[in-house]
Amino acid sequence: MTERPDHPSAADVPESPYVPEELSQQDGVGVPDPFLRLWTPHRMAYIEGENKPTSSEAGSGCPFCRLPSLPDTDALIVHRGEAAYAVLNLYPYNPGHLMVVPYRHVADYTELTDAEVADVATLTRQAMQAIRAVSAAHGFNIGMNQGEIAGAGIAAHLHQHVVPRWSGDMNFMPTIAHTKVLPQLLSDTRALLAKSWP
C-alpha cells in the first residue's frame, strides 16, 4: 500500500506518554497512535439485525411475544403489569434504557385498548420512578417509533422506550467514537430496577 504524503508514517508518530509500553504497538490497525480502543462487538448483533423478526406475525418469531414466556431474569423483564410489561433493551442507548411493551402483538398506538394505554402509561411512570431511585437520572427521553420509516427496529410489535439521561451523558464517546460505555451488566441493572420498582 502506498503511503499518502499527508499521512504520517509510524516512525513519524511520537510515542505518547499516556499509552503503556505494551499497548503502544497496534499491529493490524494502521499507523500506531496514542489512542486506546474500546471494542463493542456486541453492537454488531444489532447492526446486523440478529434476532430481528423475519415476519410481522405474532408468535415465537417476535421477541416481544416470546419474552413473557421466559423467566424474568432470562428475559430481562423488570416488571409485569396487567396488559404490558417493562423489559431492558438489549442494545441500550444509556444504562437503564428499558421498554414498555403491551403483551398483545399490535403495531400501531391507535390500535391499543384503553386498558393497554393505561397500563403502558402507568408502567412508564413507574419506570421513571425506579430509574431515578437507582441512578438519580436527571431526565428522560420517552417515546415510540411508529413504523420502520420512523426508525422502529421491530415495527410489528409496539414498544415505548424509556431512556434515562444525565448531564454530560453525550460526551466524546458517542459523538466521536460512536461508542457507548455501559458500566454495568444488564442482569445487574435488571435486578436493581426490579427491586426498586414502585
From TrEMBL:
Residue stretches making up the HIT domain: 63-172
Q: What EC number(s) does its UniProt record assign?
A: 2.7.7.53
User: What PANTHER family does this protein map onto?
Assistant: AP-4-A PHOSPHORYLASE, HIT FAMILY HYDROLASE
Q: Where is this region: Disordered?
A: 1-26
- Pfam family, any one: HIT
Q: What is this protein called?
A: ATP adenylyltransferase
Motif Histidine triad motif: positions:
157-161
